[in-house]
Amino acid sequence: MDVIASISTLFLPLLVVLILLYALSKKTDAYGAFTEGGKEGIRLSISLLPFLLGMLVAINILRASGLLDAMNQALSPVLAFLSIPPDLISLLFIRPISGSASLGMLADLTATYGPEHFISRAASIIQGSTDTTLYVLTVYFGAVGIKKMGRALTIGLLADIAGMTIAILITIWYFS
Amino acid sequence: MVNLIWIAMIVVGIVYSMWNGTVSEVNTAMFDASTQAVELVIGFVAVFTFWLGMMEIANQSGLLDKLTKLTRPLLVKIFPELSPKDPALGFIMSNITANFFGLGNAATPFGLKAMSALQANNPNPHVPTRSMVTFLCLNTAALTLFPTTVISLRMTHGAIEPMDIVIPAFLATCCSCLVALTLDRIFYFFTIKKRRR
After folding, report:
1. pLDDT score recorded for residue B65
2. What's the gap in Å between the CA of A89 and the closest CA on chain B?
3. Which stretches are transmembrane (chain A) (predicted)?
4. How far is A56 from chain B (nearest CA, A)?
5. Is residue B11 part of a domain?
6. Closest Cα to residue A129, out of B151, B171, B47?
7. Predicted pLDDT of residue A43
8. Could you tell me if B189 lies within 8 Å of chain A, comparing CB atoms?
9. Is the Cβ pair B28, A64 closer than 8 Å?
């Protein structure tokens, strides 16, 4: 495991060195290329603002109104029937919608139950093995100005449901 | 569809807050979210400028081409619509690699470059192409070997072995990627059939 950890920390610095040395060997104008590419970074990130702002406002309104909590409560009998622990329900709900909110919930569950508990492990695996579908689609489609997400949203959400179910099953299997 | 979801989220949320007595919370939340978005974008400016700068060096020196050649056989199978010479492949490869090592910050700018490269060959710029959908399926399913934020969170909470979730999480993410790719194929062939009728 330590090997994976050090690969992960070393990856970016080594990548930078590789890019620069290769450019040097090919006599590329590295500094010129860097500033040229960087300019596009500014344009790209600023152009994302309206898309991100629109989505974040909608998500925050839903959360602050208390509707998300109410939906959790309404659905809890169904999920309890499927033997999903009630503490995980809010996380399952919020994971595809908001990355920061689900990370907050994971921190909360880890603090409440301790990091070795089944629920906090399952929550870690859910958080680590999925991504915030709505956010990814907003940012990626926003960058090219496409407003119709089409089947990408349906597939993303269906894959989330499958992925989170698999994550819980794998946690049960792996840690028992 | 996004249009309807967006309107519904806001309108239903505000109406519910009136009934639930949380209007003042919603008021604060709206403007907090706007500030949050601006802060997020400022963070993006820093990361994107750095990584797209680095990427441009790799692009001009030909390093990107070289690295892409290694992964081309696999990528062409996942993205059958792209020609093996498509410039998007290099960015797609960089995005997947960065995600794989849990480097979400570096992955996003590469992913956005991939999207612009795909959009450049899009005959109908308002509708996503097949390759874009496949690419985003891979991204939302998050093929990660090393979920960095989760591990650091477990470390701060004093886990005996914060890394013990790496293997099960990797198995889970592989499964969800397979599901996403399969669904993508099924949906694609389904829409093709519908169009032909």
Report:
1. 83
2. 18
3. 41-62, 74-98, 118-141, 153-175
4. 5
5. no
6. B171
7. 85
8. no
9. yes
Instruction: For A147-167, give the DSSP string.
Output: ---THHHHHHHHHHHHHHHHH
User: What ipTM was reported for this prediction?
Assistant: 0.83
Tell me whether residues A129 and B169 touch, CB distance under 8 A: yes
Give the helix, strand, coil percentages of chain A, each rounded to 5. Answer: 85, 0, 15
- Whether this prediction's pTM lies above 0.90 is answered by no
Domain span holding position A74: 47-175
Give the C-alpha separation, A124 to B149, whole Å. Answer: 10
Count of domains for chain A? 1
| Residue A34 within any structural domain of the chain | no
Query: How much is the pLDDT for B147?
Result: 81
Q: Is A108 a domain residue? A: yes
With beta carbons less than 8 A apart as the criterion, state whether A74 and A89 touch. no
Q: Is A5 a member of any domain?
A: no
Determine the residue type at B143: L
Chosen from A11, A45, A59, A73 to mutate, greatest number of chain B CBs within 10 A: A45
In chain A (176 residues long), the average pLDDT of successive 10-residue segments reads: 66 87 93 91 86 86 86 77 75 84 84 88 90 89 86 89 90 86
CB contact under 8 A, B157 and A8: no
Asked whether residue A2 is assigned to any structural domain, the reply reads no
Interchain CB distance below 8 Å, B166 and A152: no
Minimal CA–CA distance to B132: which of B150, B114, B147?
A: B114
- Residue B42 burial (CB count, 10 A): 12
Distance from CA of B196 to the nearest CA of A (A): 18
**Distance in Å from the first CA to the final CA of chain B:** 24
Give residue B17's pLDDT: 94
b/e map of A13-50 (b: 16 or more CB within 10 Å)? eebeeebbebbeeeebebeebbebbbebbeebbeebbe
Distance, CA of B46 to CA of B50 (rounded, Å): 6
Helix residue ranges per DSSP H, B21-103: 23-61, 63-78, 88-100
Mutation target for A interface from B112, B137, B170, B174: give the one with most A CBs within 10 A. Answer: B112
The pLDDT value given to residue B197? 59
